[in-house]
Write a structure and sequence with these properties.
alpha/beta, six-stranded mixed beta sheet, 12 helices, 42% helix, 17% strand
């Protein structure tokens, strides 16, 4: 290294020239000797007006469905600069580690609030404790977390997935009575969402709570299709091969239902109002409601994605020093061919 520096001095006259050349050459020398390594520095988003806005870090679990897209849009529409917010958005792409990394990034950026929809319920204690230690309130939306210390989050906004599952079961009870099939053996298959998620847990347990009251209801199989149309079609295709006498499909979201419908169409299986397989779906996004109106889906249990306004209201209350509830349940409906038409015109998602 000394020989190189001597040559540099001979090539460049004056102290200024030497300093400039050293600034150029030294990093290369240090890297070549393993004394210096490059590190990636995460750049913070900055806006000149941010000082006057409430900064919110929002980690969405992914974009796996039409419902999820509507859910994201609801938050983005509610937390805008015009309403007093600077929103930092992160898409975790269905990976919990991505969400944990995003939350830690929000903490390091010293946001005012953290909002996130957890991929699954478990595994959040450490990062939520870090947010609590940093004095940043955490607002959960859509899905819950399973933690011993509930002070790790401020509030939860979402839907009652367990009640949604029970609604599906109670609807099936009424439907079978109307068809005079309440005493028949009823073979049921269930397409579950992401295992361990609040929606999957609640809808599974809620429906099973009703099914347990009926010895003639037989759940042949419950299998995850990850809340996606592609997996819904794949899993339903396999179920149709294994079980030729399916009476009821319970599909825990509309995207999986649409995939399952394609599988039944390709297999020549009739379904819906005038078909062999009764179809129960969840979420109630517009494309699925149109299928309800056409008689292709018998019933769709709503899971309301419009939750952004609740976040705005809660943050405004907290900013004013007011108390908030520990949970807020969004209102929901049940859609069948009898009532769906009057809701379609106003359905934007």
């Amino acid at each position: 290294m000394k020989k190189i520096l001597e040559k540099c001095k001979q090539m460049v006259f004056g102290h200024v020239g030497v300093c400039i050349l050293l600034l150029c050459v030294l990093p290369l020398l240090l890297v070549s000797h393993g004394l210096f390594q490059e590190v990636e520095i995460e750049q913070e988003s900055f806006d000149p007006e941010m000082e006057d806005l409430i900064v919110v870090g929002f980690s969405q679990l992914g974009s796996e469905s039409g419902w999820r897209s509507a859910h994201t849009l609801s938050v983005q529409d509610a937390l805008t600069k015009d309403t007093g917010y600077f929103l930092i958005f992160n898409n975790a792409r269905q990976i919990q580690e991505n969400q944990i990394k995003a939350i830690r990034s929000f903490i390091s950026q010293r946001v005012d609030y953290i909002v996130f929809a957890p991929v699954i319920e478990s595994g959040w204690e450490t990062v939520l404790q870090e947010a609590k230690d940093a004095g940043i309130p955490v607002i959960l939306i859509d899905r819950m977390v399973n933690v011993k210390d509930e002070s790790l989050y401020t509030t939860w906004i979402g839907t009652d997935a367990w009640e949604e599952g029970k609604k599906a079961g109670r609807w099936l009870e009424r439907y079978l009575r109307e068809k005079n099939r309440q005493s028949e053996d009823i073979n049921i298959v269930v397409l579950q969402g992401t295992m361990g998620s609040t929606a999957e847990i609640g809808r599974t347990e809620g429906f099973e709570a009703i099914a347990e009251n009926h010895g003639n209801w037989h759940i042949l199989e419950s299998a995850t299709a990850e809340f996606t149309a592609t997996r819904g079609k794949e899993v339903m295709r396999e179920m149709l091969r294994r079980y030729p006498n399916i009476d009821v499909l319970v599909s825990q979201n509309d995207d999986m239902t649409m995939g399952a419908v394609e599988a039944m169409q390709e297999a020549g299986i009739s379904f819906g109002e005038n078909g062999k397989v009764t179809v129960i779906s969840f979420d109630a996004i517009r494309p699925a409601l149109e299928m309800v109106n056409e008689g292709l889906i018998n019933v769709d249990i709503e899971c309301n994605p419009v939750q952004g306004a609740y976040i705005d209201e809660i943050i405004k209350r907290l900013e004013a020093g007011m108390s908030v509830e520990k949970s807020y349940v969004v209102e929901e409906n049940i859609f069948t061919k009898d009532n769906v038409a009057k809701f379609l015109d106003d359905r934007t998602y």
